[in-house]
């Protein structure tokens, strides 16, 4: 079951799988590294919807724009 309510950017994720835990830990590692060495970064948490009209070629260009 997926959450149905919206969350804020500072909401701590409820990691329920090893994959989710790894993604969140990687973000925290990047955050600590950036704070230590003084650079800015952006993390994209994309949700790819897959279906009959799915076009993988559009995922990257949309994020870059």
UniProtKB/TrEMBL annotation:
Residues 9-62 form the NAD-dependent epimerase/dehydratase domain. InterPro entries: Epimerase_deHydtase, NAD(P)-bd_dom_sf. Gene3D superfamilies: NAD(P)-binding Rossmann-like Domain (3.40.50.720). This is NAD-dependent epimerase/dehydratase family protein. It comes from Listeria booriae.
């Amino acid at each position: 079951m997926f959450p149905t309510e919206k969350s804020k950017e500072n909401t701590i994720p409820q990691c329920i799988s090893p994959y989710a835990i790894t993604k969140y830990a990687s973000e925290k590692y990047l955050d600590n590294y950036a704070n230590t060495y003084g650079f800015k970064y952006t993390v994209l948490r994309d949700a790819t919807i897959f279906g009959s009209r799915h076009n993988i070629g559009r995922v990257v260009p949309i994020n870059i724009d």
